[in-house]
Structure formats: C-alpha cells, structure tokens
Amino acid sequence: MIRKELTWTPFKVLLEREVRRFMKVLMQTVMTPLINSTLYLMIFGVSLGASISVGDLSYLAFLIPGLVMMNCLNNSYQNSSSSIVSSKFNGELEDYRVSPLSPQQIVMAFAIGGLARGLMVGGITFCVGQVFYFVQQGTVLGLANPLHLLFFLVIGGLAFATLGITVAFWAKTFDQMSAVSAFIMLPLLYLGGVFFSIESLHPFWKGLAQMNPMLYMINGVRYGILGVSDVAVEKAALVSVLSFIVFFVLALRTLIKGSFQRW
Amino acid sequence: MKPLVVSNLTKRYGDFEAVKGVSFSLEPGEIFGLLGPNGAGKTSIISVIVTLTQPSSGDVEVFEQSVSDNPREAKVHTGLVPQELINHGYFDVEEVLKFYSGYFGVTGNKSRIDFLLDRLQLWEHRKKKVKQLSGGMKRRLLIAKALVHEPKLLLLDEPTAGVDIELRESLWEFVTDLRKEGLTVLLTTHYLEEAEQLCDRVAILHHGEMRKIGPTKQLIEGLTQRNILIQLKSPLSQFQHPYLIDNSGAALHFRVPSGVGAGDLLAESQLDLSNVVDMKIEEGSLEEAFRSVLSGTRGELS
Ligand SMILES: Nc1ncnc2c1ncn2[C@@H]1O[C@H](COP(=O)(O)OP(=O)(O)OP(=O)(O)O)[C@@H](O)[C@H]1O
Ligand SMILES: [Mg+2]
Q1: CA-based radius of gyration for chain B
Q2: What is the pLDDT of residues B4-20, one digit of tens each?
Q3: Atom number in ligand 1 closest to CA B11
Q4: Do B138 and B119 meet the contact criterion of CB atoms below 8 Å apart?
Q5: Ligand 1 proximity of B286 Cβ (cutoff 6 Å)
Q6: Are A150 and A224 in contact (CB under 8 A)?
C-alpha cells in the first residue's frame, strides 16, 4: 500500500520542474528552432524548392509538416536527455532516487515534460512555416486531419522523450551524448522523409528508409496537416505506438536497473 | 518501532568488499555517530539506506519497511544530507526546496520552508541560484532540503565539512532541538569532538568492519585512560607508583584506568596532601578511543 500523497504529487511536481526548466532557458529552447526552421524554409522551401513539386504539392507545403515533426521529436528528445545529463553532472539525479519518486513517475514526468517542449517548438515551427507559405502562395495551410495530427505529435514526442531518458542514463560522458545525437538522431531525422518523399528513392534505399520509425511519425504528421502520406496512416500509427511502448519499457528498465549516482 | 535497522549488510564494488556484514540499529530519538577513517564504508552504508546503491547482501529497514522490498515507504520518512554538494543549475534556493518537498508528496509547506531558510541563515539568499551560493551555503541548503519534508530519520553524511565554526555550532543546536521533537539522527563526521558532545552512541567502522559500538561515554571509559597531573610544593624525586608516567620533580603525571578516581589515587599512593599545590584531571577523549580502536590496542597500559 502506497500512501495517497505519493500517488500524484511527486509526479506532478517533477513534471512542473521539467517544464519550468525549459521555460527558464526559453531563448535557447525557442530561438534555436525558430532560427533553424527559418533557415531550412528559406534555403530548401523557398530558394531550392521553388522549382520542385512533390506530386501536386508545392515543395514548401511538403516540407512544413516534416519540419514541424522533426523539431517536435528532436526537442522532446533533447529536453529529457539534457535535463538528465545535467542532473547527473550536478548530482541532482541522486535527489530523484533518495526521494520516494517511483521509476514510473520519473519516466512519465520526463516524457510529458519533453513532449511539452516538443509541442511548443513544433507549434512555433508551424507558425513560421505558415508565414513562408502565405508569402509564397497567398494563403495558409489548413489542417486536413487535426486529430491525426495531434495523435502523431503526442505519441512521437512521448516516444522520443522516453528515448532521451534511456540514452542520458546510459551515457557515461557528454561526448557519448553528442555522439548519439550526431550519429544516430540527426541522420535518422534527416532520412526520415522530412525533405523528400521516399517514393523518389531507389528501391534499396526506400526499403532501408522504411525501417526508420521516424519516417512513420513524420508521415503521420504530414497526413494530419496535408492529408497525404508516403505510408499508410494505420501503419504509421501502429509503428508510432509500438516505438513508444518499446522506448517506454526501455526507459523504465534503465531507471530500475541504472545508477543515479553522479559522474 | 526502530527508526533504522541494518542487518548483516555487505556491499561489494566488483571484487572489493567495502562493507563487511555490518549490523546495528538506532533507537527512537537518539543521535548515533557512525565513525571511521576515510574509506571505512560510512557513505556506502548510507547509500544503501537511501537506495542509491543496492546491498550485495543483508538488508536495511527504516521504520520496519525494507529498503529493498518497499523502497518508497522506507524513504518517505528519511532525510539525507549527502557528503557531496549538489548543484541545481536552473533554480533558486526557494524553488529547489519547493520541488524537493513535492518529491516527498508534500506541498503547501511554505511556512516550513521559511522556517528552515531562517534557521539555517539562508533567508537573504533564498532568491539566489544555487550555483551563486558559497560552499558553506550549499551545505546549508542540503540540510534544509533534508529537513523540508519533516523526516523522522535524518542521515547526516559529514554535514559540517566546509561550514564555519559559528554555523557549525548553530547547526548542532538545531539538531539538538529537532531531537527533542523526536527526530532520530545518524551522523558521520571526522570532527570527533563534535561526535563526542552530540552522540548518545557511536559505532567505529574500519575497513568495512564494525570494530566497536556502544554508548559514547562508556566506550571512551572502556578504551581510554585519565591523565592526572599533580603539582607539588617540594619535589618528590624518589616517588614511585605503577601509574606514574612522568615525574618532573615539581609535578607528577599519572595515567590511570578510567575507573580510578583521583581521590583513590591520592589515598592509595599516600601522598601528603599538604604538599599538593594543584591537581588537573584530563578525561580520555573520543579521539583517543578512536585511535586505540583503529590501532587495535586498548591504551598503553594493558
Ligand atoms: N562506486 C564505487 N565504486 C568502487 N568503489 C567504491 C565506490 N564507492 C566507494 N568505493 C570504495 O568503498 C570504500 C568505502 O567508501 P565510502 O565512501 O563508503 O567510505 P567513507 O567511510 O564514506 O569514507 P570518507 O570518510 O572518505 O567519506 C572505499 O575504499 C571506496 O574507495
Ligand atoms: Mg563518506
């Protein structure tokens, strides 16, 4: 029997901490993706993309949902992982272990905290994209399937925030953290169909790209905004949910077995 | 209900055995000193109590809740001041205390937080980021954190390292006050004088083994000798006595077992009282007792 005050309060407080943490570094959390997506939209969407179209879509329309989800996933991941890594470095991680927070509560708080940042940055990216779209097309993008959009953003954000927990616990140094970002996260994101349709790929690369769970999440969001997707939307939903479950179980295991002791 | 029971606790790091089958328990409301040189295994034991590490064998119970089987219930009444300072990069002192209370399921405890800030002289620093605090202030913040959820068992792992004398005294005053309210304290420190003054009982740990445990006074008495210095009017250069260790002529220096009183000594050695100018008695200290336990001998005479 666990006492009542331990059911929700520790989780809620840790979640509050996580959200307040990224709000404190708002410049960093918001400005970086803002500048980032502006650059992408300018270079790929406007300059290079003016002469390209994907099916009957303008390249800009194709690009915007991809950028939204890329930033959402990346920021969800960054939020939980950088929070944990810096706590590890500070010794603050020990606080979580010394207090009666349960592993489930810790995973959920970091997952939802990461998702909050992912959604915020994803939303900002969408707004920037709309500005570009309006300038080019004289109109804004509507939302073809808003509920699908929300579903994929939430599941994707949660999945990548929980992945961030596992990686941050596993990492022994800051270098290992950035190695995972540079050699695994970014390539998967870039090759996840943000910038191009996998229909245009050679069958070998297409087969390879289809093993990347991000492809499904990104196409899910594209379906949510534009109503088109490179993959069947049911399959995209299934892969997204499965990824979340796998990453969640992994994170939980890591927290139960892993060390909370400082570097 | 015992606040803490450590049974047959062993902690191995790889092949190295840092804690070797240690058992002890704490009584409600006592201050218990866990002493030992660097590397004795004190922090390892505390880490097991707060589930930072798992025991290799044996178990720990906090208020009858096993830390292995029921960790959350075991931790809810425990406060820890860790040996190493903790930084909180993003938050100020007040926020840290608020969050930390929440992890223990406590909210709306502003008056408790204000009380601790005041008592630990952190009030004027409450809006500072933790990284802006000095080392001693960070230590005090750790103490405030440990107490913010009103624990019933307080674990202090060298809480006074790097804290100035004045604050050290006010801290001990605070701990004594808290004890009156029923708090049980486990303390490790290298300041043996502090331990001697504060602890009802002490345990001395060496290379992971429990070497000695008992009420502080009794332990000192059993392990040390008293020094008795007698100043004389006229020298007694021929004076002989088994407890005499130095005779400078003007003064006699005796070292006697702790059971022997000065009066007994005077009577038994048939010293002429009119020849005695002054007398000084030095009791054995915990530090001496500690040394004798570590060196494995029981003082010089036995
Ligand atoms: N994580 C670890 N991995 C390997 N060995 C460790 C680890 N932690 C502690 N030890 C070893 O275990 C022994 C006991 O360490 P511990 O920190 O418990 O000592 P202590 O009594 O707290 O010492 P001090 O007074 O210096 O704080 C030491 O020999 C130490 O080197
Ligand atoms: Mg120690």
Answers
A1: 24
A2: 999 999 999 999 999 99
A3: 12
A4: no
A5: no
A6: yes
